[in-house]
Design brief:
The protein is an alpha+beta fold. Helix content is about 25%, strand content about 20%.
Length: about 220
């Protein structure tokens, strides 16, 4: 039997989420206006508490969103060996609505899958009736709920993969965690939110698998 997904605190109201994105300058970065964000939040107010307001990755890709993350006043960043981060696009297991804005329902960090490989986690999520998060969706979550990212309790976003020219997937899989300030991250980034990658068949004790029960435009 699959384990019970980890409990997630109640999200801010959709109007508060819209306000947060506006304050961060997402309208200017995505071309989705502040009025559109407010109107979408108002139209979907019935989903307050269980829904994450998300801008489509084509409008607000991971490279644009990651620097907006903050932890202890340190900005988020993408690792230097992932210059192609925006080429990690939705897989068939994580299809998104064709809309500039949509909701993600039933978020879970996947703590019960810590120390699983992505190859092991993906079919288990499908069996649970869950869909893996995209990298951009995971960033949206941490923007709205910074507590979703804890040291030793971070998460992968295996709904985003990079397809190579031969049609096969790149073995790297994106994740969001907290930098230790080592190596090329730089000491000044210790404790900062970090967008990086792990190998598809590797396990990490401190990484779960972000997922949701669905998406709705």
């Amino acid at each position: 039997m699959p384990e019970t997904p980890s409990t997630v605190p109640v999200l801010p109201s959709l109007s508060d989420q819209a306000r947060r994105l506006i304050e961060l300058g997402v309208p200017e970065l995505s071309g989705v206006s502040a009025d559109e964000l407010r109107a979408f939040a108002a139209d979907n107010a019935g989903a307050d508490g269980d829904a994450l307001l998300t801008v489509h990755p084509d409008r607000a890709p991971a490279s644009v969103l990651a620097p907006l993350l903050r932890r202890d006043d340190k900005p988020g960043f993408v690792v230097v060996d992932m210059p192609d981060v925006d080429r990690f696009t939705p897989t068939d297991a994580a299809l998104v609505p064709e809309a500039a804005l949509y909701l993600i329902i039933g978020l879970d960090r996947g703590d019960h899958m810590s120390n699983w490989s992505p190859d092991e986690a993906l079919p288990a999520l499908a069996e649970e009736g869950r869909t893996p998060l995209l990298l951009s969706e995971g960033i949206h979550w941490v923007l709205q709920q910074p507590a979703a990212l804890e040291r030793n309790r971070c998460f992968m976003t295996i709904g985003s993969r990079l397809r190579k020219d031969n049609g096969a997937f790149d073995a790297r899989t994106p994740a969001i965690w907290i930098s230790n300030g080592t190596g090329r991250d730089g000491r000044e980034r210790r404790g900062a939110p970090k967008v990086g990658w792990c190998w598809w068949n590797n396990r990490h004790t401190w990484l779960g698998f972000g997922s949701a029960t669905g998406r709705k435009a």
